[in-house]
Fold this sequence. Notes:
The structure is a homodimer.
Chain A: H1 14-31, H2 38-48, H3 56-65, H4 72-84, E1 88-91, E2 96-99, E3 110-114, E4 120-123, H5 126-138, E5 142-153
Parallel strand pairs in A: 3-5
Antiparallel strand pairs in A: 1-2, 3-4
Helix pairs in contact in A: 1-2, 2-4, 3-4
Chain B binds a DNA duplex through residues 35, 37, 39-40, 55-57, 68-69, 71-74, 76-77, 81, 95.
Amino acid sequence: MSKQPLSFQPEHDHDHCIHEALKKARGLCAERKQRLTPIRELVLQLIWKSHKPLGAYELLPALADAGFNSAPPTVYRALDFLQTQGLVHRISSLNAFIGCPHPGPSHQGCFLICRACNSTVELESAPVQNAIHNSAAHLGFIIEQETVEVVGLCPNCQSNDPSPAQREPE
Amino acid sequence: MSKQPLSFQPEHDHDHCIHEALKKARGLCAERKQRLTPIRELVLQLIWKSHKPLGAYELLPALADAGFNSAPPTVYRALDFLQTQGLVHRISSLNAFIGCPHPGPSHQGCFLICRACNSTVELESAPVQNAIHNSAAHLGFIIEQETVEVVGLCPNCQSNDPSPAQREPE
DNA sequence: ATAATTTAAGTTACACTATAACAAAACATA
DNA sequence: TATGTTTTGTTATAGTGTAACTTAAATTAT
């Protein structure tokens, strides 16, 4: 439990995260000859300003502030683009979106979502993937897309004990 | 790949499934002193009539036909009850609900969803659970709820090859 | 049995999430 | 510059889910 992911470290340099994410995104889009337009980049930046998944409608006011049209299609289009490029993921159990910390090769995330503070961490868990692939292969099922979303309490929120959860005496 | 789950067997005796599911539900609710009211039982039956996840709004017409109120809260209340009792699961990537084939001890399913025919199978995959638990424990994250939803092609739909999927030459 | 309490269902209204469809503008290329 | 393509603006609407209050039914206590 020594090396926490950044999302579970309240004190980390988040501006750095945002900066790095945008840099990677620009690089990837350039490589792929995809246009990271101002709207798309703004949406990506807004999403990265939070380590918590954001709903599409939460992004609209900021688009308006920046002088863009802020009707729903605007933000959904940007989100579609960012998802296609693997720059953001949709958390379907929350109807919300979060930045991908390691975009690049297409992949599916495995998310740990804190129900108390909403911090969300994306794992690259090979064992989880493998277990799923084995189970599916066993039934002759061909996997195209995986959704793994785990809700619970992050280390920081366990002491405050927001109701239903009780730490297991391991 | 010999023993397919029923959902992937088009020819199985589905009336039997429905009957068994309702019987189990009645038993469990009786044990727990929970009221499986006519509306709740009807909703459960409707869900079981399909091996495919159904949206809440798809249930409303049948409620109306049966003489019940068919405004959304009616069906959502029934679904909430059934979920709490572990009799149905919500598939969040589809905004839809499916019957649980082995209700009883509270559990989380791992779902294989065919994007061609919508058949959905609930696995009890200990390896998947374990992999998730290990990853979470490693970060000190306490799990309360898991969502594992895998979309792809079931064995029956692979021959028809509906677009994007390509069978891996294993 | 009847009254008091609790639980479930009826009802209206609305909030949130997402997309269709078409017009205008910006960009890329010939 | 003319042409086709991609992106954005705009309006309208579809789909999913809940709040809040009322009425009815069932349970429990008297």
